[in-house]
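My hope is that you will study the record closing this message with an eye to the fold:
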Amino acid sequence: MVGAVILPHLYHWSPTERRAAIQKEGLQPYSPSMSHEGYAYAHICLATTPSAAWGISGDMDWGREEESWDLWQVRLAEGDEVHYRAEFGNVLKEVRVANTIPPDRVWYVGTRSHAVAREIEPS
């Protein structure tokens, strides 16, 4: 018989401008989407490593100019509404959580600068 799956700490990137809100309220479903302006999704996307989390957030080219991103380490708890992305088969790449993850389970790890463009001198 297989017992409950115990997930490791997971990771989430968000624009630095959202840091104060995350520290106060945690990670919230229905926060404004970075990938689809004007939309808000019913889940929070998390990944098993910082680099995998970057691939589903800050590394996307959305035509936005977010230059500073914060990395958050997240601990899930019993009772969280967790959904796994089935299209990855038996490899856990992305986890979606459909409830608020309170600030006492979200730790700020660090900030990454992500220059999206720079001005060049005409030749």
Q: What stands out?
A: The first strand starts at residue 10 and ends at 15. DSSP finds two helices and six strands in the chain.
